[in-house]
Amino acid sequence: MTELKATFPKGFLWGGATAANQFEGAYLEGGKGLTIADISPGGKERMALLRSNDYPLEINEAKYTYPNHVGIDFYHRYQEDIALFAEMGFKTFRMSISWARIFPNGDDAEPNEAGLQYYENVIDELKKHNIEPTITISHYETPLHLVKEYGGWKNRQLIDLFEKYARTILERFHKKVTYWMTFNEINTGILGSFFTLGMRNESLQNNFQALHNQFVASSKAVKIAHELNPDIKIGCMSIYATMYAYDSNPDNVMGMVEENRMFNYFCNDVQVRGEYPTYALKYFERNNITLDIQPGELDLMKEHTVDYLSFSYYMSSAFSKNPEHSDKSQGNFFGGVKNPFLEASEWGWEIDPVGLRIALCDLYGRYGVPLYISENGLGAIDQPDANFYVTDDYRIDYLRKHIEEMEKAIRLDGVDLFAYTPWGCIDLVSASTGEMAKRYGFIYVDLDDEGNGTMNRYKKKSFDWYQQVIATNGANLANN
User: Fold this and answer.
1) What is the DSSP letter of 331?
2) Is 70 exceeded by the pLDDT of residue 108?
3) What confidence score (pLDDT) does residue 52 get?
4) Residue 418: phi, psi to the nearest 5?
5) d(Cα 480, Cα 463) in Å, to the nearest integer?
6) Which of 117, 331, 359, 380 is most exposed, with minimal Cβ within 10 Å?
7) Confidence band (pLDDT; 50, 70, 90) for 193?
8) Which residues are responsible for catalysis (predicted)?
9) Do 143 and 152 form a contact (C-beta atoms < 8 A)?
10) Taking 80 as the threshold, does the pLDDT of residue 86 lie above it?
11) Alpha helices per DSSP H over 287-372
C-alpha cells in the first residue's frame, strides 16, 4: 500500500515565479536579440493587437509603450532581489532563460557567451543563498527572427534550433540546476497564442502542427537532460482551469468534458503519457487536421516523457451551451459564463481556491506523477502609503485560501505535490496587459505604467506573511 503524506512534506519547495521578458529589462544589452515579447506593446489592447495579422512585427515607440524593455531591471539588480528572496526563505526560484540572450536570432552558429555568463551569475547567486533554481527553457520569448523569417513554430526547422539552444544551456548548467521546464503554458497554443507559438491568427492545422513540433522539441530536451545528468528533473508546464458544467444539463456536462480534455488534458497527455490520446485523434479527423509526423518522432515522444507535471492556476471556468446563459466571464481568457458562486478580481478573474484542490486531485489521479504549482496569484492595484508600504491583506487572503486547499489535497487526497511558486513574487510587467499597475508581488517596485519611479524595492505586508509560511512549512497561515 502507498503511504499517504500528511501536510506539507519535508523539503517542500516554497518559492516564487517570474519570466525573463517580464522583469529582466536590458532588452538589447549583453548581445541579446529581439524576441516576440519585445515588440508586444503595453496597454489593455495588447492581446487584441498581437492577434491581429495587421499588427507589424516591429517596435514603434512613436505609437506604443514597451514597459518590458526596462522591466524592473532585474538584469542589473539581481543580487539585491535574490537577497530579498532569501530573506523570505525561498527554497526555489522559478525563472526563465531568454532564448535570444543565448542565440540572438535563434539560428546563430554560435551562442552568445555574455548571455550564458549572465545566467551563470544569476544561478550562482541563487545557489549562494541556498535557493534551487527552477528554469523554464522557453517562456513566451521566441526570438523575433524565427517568427519573421521562419513563420514561428509551424515550421519544423524550429525543432532543431530549439534542440541546439536547449543543449547549449543544459550542457552549461546541468551540474548546477536540478529542476527544469520545457515550454511555459504550452496548451495556450490550442487557442492560437502568439506568445506560445510565435504565430498570429492561423488555421487549426497550423496550430496543432506547431504544437506537435513543440512536443518533439520538448522530448529532445528531456532526452538531452537525462543523458547529461540522470538526477535532473524536467517537467512540462501548462495552464489549468478547473472546468464546471453550469448546471446538470447533460448537454452542458458533455460540452464541459469536451472543452476540458482538449484544453486541460491534451498537452499533458502527450508529454506525460507520451502519445496522442484517442479523443485528440478524433478531433483531428473531424477538423481535417493532418500532422506532419516524421519517422521516429512518436517513438521519441513515448520514450522521453517528463518527470513531473507543473501547471499555473489562476481561475476556473463554467461552461454552458444554453444561449440564455449569456452573462460571460469577461476576465476569463478561457471563455465561459459567470459562475454565480464565485467572486472576481479587479481584472475579472474568478477566484476559486477549491478549484485548485480539484485540479490537484484531477491531475494526480490522471497521471500519477509529482506535481509542481508553478504559478498562482492575485493581480491587484496596490496602494502604498507615504513610506511605500502596502497593506495587501487581499493578497494574503487569496494565497492563504489556495494554500489551505493544497494542504487538503496532500493530507486528505494523497496528492504528491512538491513545489509552490506564486507568480510575480516581485512586481513585474503583466503578460496579458503589459502593465505595472497589475501587481502580484510580495515586493513593491516603485515604477508605474509610464516608466516613472525610482525602481526601489519595498516589502509589502505579504512579504512577512509568506516568510512565516515558509519558515513553518505551511503550518502557520495566520495573517498577524
Assistant:
1) T
2) yes
3) 84
4) -120, -5
5) 12
6) 117
7) confident
8) 375 (nucleophile)
9) no
10) yes
11) 297-303, 353-367
pLDDT at 48: 84
Which residues, in sequence order, are CB contacts of 203 under 8 Å at separation 6+?
none
Nearest Cα to Cα of residue 74 among 373, 447, 468: 447
Give the separation between CA 87 and CA 428, rounded to whole angstroms: 19
Q: Which amino acid is at 364?
A: Y
CA distance 393 to 378: 11
Place of cell 532581489: 81
Cα 328 to the chain's mean position, in Å? 25
What's residue 1's pLDDT?
Answer: 40
pLDDT of residue 330: 55
Which pLDDT score is estimated for 243?
95
Task: Give backbone dihedrals phi and psi of 350, rounded to 5 degrees, phi first.
Answer: -70, 135
- pLDDT value for 331: 54
Which distant-in-sequence residues (6+ apart) come within 8 Å of 93 by Cβ? 15, 16, 17, 18, 82, 85, 126, 131, 132, 133, 134, 421, 425
Q: Which residues are catalytic?
A: 375
CATH of 13-471, picked from 3.90.78.10, 2.40.50.140, 3.20.20.80, 3.40.50.300, is 3.20.20.80
CA distances from 433 to 88, 344, 356, 453 (A): 28, 17, 24, 19
Closest-CA residue to 166 (of 71, 122, 232, 74)? 232
> Strands 132-138, 457-459: parallel, antiparallel or unpaired by DSSP?
unpaired
Q: pLDDT per residue over 164-186, tens digit each?
A: 999 999 999 999 999 999 999 99
Q: What angle do CA 256, 258, 264 make, to 5 degrees?
A: 85
Whole-model pTM over 0.85:
yes
Give the residue among 315, 230, 220, 215 at the shortest CA–CA distance from 268.
Answer: 215
Backbone angles phi, psi at 35, to 5 degrees: -120, 175
**Mean pLDDT, range 24-38, rounded to an integer:** 97
